TrEMBL record:
This is Alginate lyase domain-containing protein. It holds the Pfam family Ulvan_lyase_N. Residues 378-618 form the Broad-specificity ulvan lyase C-terminal domain. Residues 37-365 form the Broad-specificity ulvan lyase N-terminal domain. The lineage of its organism: Bacteria, Pseudomonadati, Bacteroidota, Chitinophagia, Chitinophagales. Coiled coil: none annotated. InterPro entries: Chondroitin_lyas, P29_C, P29_N.
Length: 624
């Protein structure tokens, strides 16, 4: 009786009402999994005489990605759901092709790279697929599959550890070797799984965020990336805990997941705007990581909020599926890039959804609000130096995450993430993303994963100047100081202080303070500049997401209107001296990750005639 009453209760969330409903998550997972496997099937080589029979063609890269064979598991689950023989044959072909690509030491290279850490992903998918299609394999096929599984498990046993790989591979291997034990009956495999699991949770900070995705210090990697944690590491640890009944690891994952849940925004987007591997941020997650549904499916039975979060993110993911069925790199994929994406997001998300379909043992859950649904709060993450603010109409993330890749410095792909107290993500009710972050300087550290993008400009709001000595910005300030204060029931203040720096973290000549005030209907920013060694012209840049149909109109030298499909916003200077420019070099404001086009709004500030400080104040708000 009580459950029935809950199911018909009325929640009021985010300024709108939704009737609590029962979420059939298996149905939802299958509704996206099957179209993704269908498009992968179309791209799979079917001719038995072809040496690449079973491989999946990537028309963007013209490479036979060995990781694409992880689709063996989505194909197997699709067969289980539909009973269609074409999916069974696709799974058998994918597995056979993958076995033919195996190195003599049992590993697989992540073609076109030489990296073999992804062997853990490929092996886990092979084993889980084998459990589903084993009855349909011939005796010789079973022998071949089982030999390949044992060989790959032995390789992982020998090489996998934090000294060898980023922490997400270590975390995944805990599940892989725990699963392999059922095939190999080698106690060393499950013992190694436990050792790796406990080493991984030892790298969690006191809030449950895992260090180990960035550059190496003395031996091991440090640095937190929320995307890889939610889409790889945590579900690997959770699955390991379920397979081995390791309650210690399970408790660490549960504690961690409660904090990570805050980073699912109301529209389901996953906020990895600040993470050290945010150079692959796609807003639904990451371009080459698996997805968060597997993680949420593992724990939805214990907390129904995870089912809601899983569905929201899945619904957001669906908006990025392109007409041909592949998943793009973000909301504006074709507008930004003009060409089809790599198949990586499609097969990794299909793998994730297949896992979620199988791991969610309850399937039906009562829709339950997630943290970002509530309004009128501010949360500071002390181990990250990150602040989230949620008002009636806005939600924002402000980042001062202090990780530094000391050894590599500016050469590190992890050190061009947004920082310095910038607002790395801004969401608005009935609009979605209003501002997003990107890398400060685009490069191609992994040429096959990062498309060519000549001349693109950073999408992150920033304060900067350029002169003969270089480019100095708050985005390279990795030692900013953040403070928070609640000014009223619906009024929140965040303040960030630092120095404008170059890519080598060397101070320029100007210090800054950004004071944010978040209200229900506006965001106000006050920027104070302190000129202590030179007096350059400073630019404050605020790029806005340029959705189709959005019209930007500069009204005068201090005000600009933004007319979206649903409402009008304004950007207006309300104090201090500065000249407003809208749309300068707008054609350069796009990024592959996330695939977004933006419209730049800039305020140019000349140095003070008298004294050494200058201040500008402006608002982004609803209305005329």
């Amino acid at each position: 009786m009580r459950r029935t009453l809950v199911a018909i209760a009325l929640f009021v969330l985010c300024g709108y009402s939704i009737r609590a409903q029962v979420l059939d998550m298996k149905k939802e997972y299958a509704a996206t999994l099957l179209p993704l496997t269908k498009v992968l099937l179309k791209l799979q080589v079917q001719e038995r005489a072809d040496a690449h029979c079973g491989a999946i063609a990537c028309q963007s890269c013209n490479v036979w990605h060995t990781r694409a064979a992880e689709a063996v598991y989505p194909f197997s689950v699709a067969y289980k759901i539909t009973g269609e023989d074409r999916y069974l044959q696709a799974a058998k072909n994918a597995g056979a092709w993958l076995i033919r690509q195996q190195e003599t030491n049992g590993s697989w290279k992540e073609t076109p790279e030489e990296w073999t850490g992804t062997t853990t992903d490929q092996l886990l998918m092979m084993m889980m697929a084998y459990e589903l299609i084993n009855p349909h394999l011939s005796a010789s096929e079973r022998t071949t599959w089982e030999a390949s599984i044992r060989q790959a498990a032995d390789y992982l046993y020998q090489v996998m550890k934090p000294e060898f790989a980023s922490i997400n591979y270590v975390a995944t291997t805990t599940a892989t070797l725990a699963k392999a034990y059922a095939f190999t009956h080698n106690p060393q495999h499950v013992q190694k799984a436990r050792e790796l699991a406990h080493r991984t949770i030892s790298k969690m900070d006191e809030s449950g965020f895992i260090n180990g995705e960035g550059g190496r210090g003395i031996g091991n990697k440090l640095g937190v990336d929320l995307g890889y944690e939610m889409e790889m590491s945590l579900w690997g640890l959770g699955l390991y805990a379920r397979l081995t009944q390791d309650t210690l690891v399970d408790s660490y994952v549960k504690r961690s997941l409660k904090e990570h849940l805050y980073f699912i925004y109301p529209d389901g987007s996953l906020d990895n705007s600040w993470g050290i591997r945010s150079n692959k941020w796609t807003m639904y997650g990451g371009a080459t990581s698996d997805g968060c549904q597997a993680l949420f499916a593992l724990y939805a039975q214990e907390d129904a909020r995870y089912a809601t979060a899983s569905l929201r993110n899945l619904q957001f993911l669906r908006t990025t599926i392109l007409p041909e069925g592949l998943i793009g790199y973000g909301p504006h994929h074709y507008r930004a890039l003009g060409k089809p994406p790599c198949i990586y997001p499609t097969f990794t998300k299909a793998k994730n959804l297949a896992l979620a379909y199988e791991l969610d043992k309850v399937s039906k859950h009562v829709a339950t609000p997630i943290p970002s649904d509530a309004t009128g709060w501010m949360k500071y993450f002390p181990t990250l130096d990150i602040v989230q603010v949620r008002t009636n109409n806005f939600m924002a993330t402000i980042t001062g995450y202090r990780y530094k890749d000391q050894a590599a410095g500016a050469r590190s792909k992890y050190m061009h993430r947004p920082n310095g107290g910038t607002q790395s993500y801004l969401w608005m009710k009935d609009q979605g993303a209003l501002q997003v972050s990107s890398v400060t300087s685009y490069s191609r550290p992994e040429p096959m994963s990062f498309p060519e993008a000549p001349g693109v400009e950073c999408l992150t709001p920033q304060i900067f100047y350029k002169d003969s000595t270089g480019y100095f910005t708050n985005l390279y300030e990795f030692d900013s100081r953040l403070t928070t204060r609640q000014l009223g029931k619906h009024l929140f203040q965040v303040e960030a202080t630092g120095e404008l720096k170059n890519k080598d973290w060397i101070n320029g000549t100007v210090a800054y303070t950004i004071r944010y005030v978040f209200a229900d209907d506006y965001i106000e920013k006050t920027i104070k500049l302190t000129y202590h060694d030179a007096f350059p012209v400073i630019t404050v840049r605020e790029p806005f997401v340029a959705n189709e149909g959005t019209v930007f109109s500069q009204l005068d030298s201090s005000k600009l209107s933004i007319q979206t499909m649903k409402q009008r916003l304004y950007f207006g200077i309300t104090g201090g001296e500065g000249k407003l420019y809208g749309g300068r070099n707008a054609e350069h404001f796009w990024m592959p990750y996330p695939a977004v086009k933006a419209y730049p709004v800039e305020v140019e500030i000349t140095p003070p005639v008298n004294g050494f400080t200058k201040e500008i104040k402006y608002r982004i708000g609803l209305g005329k």
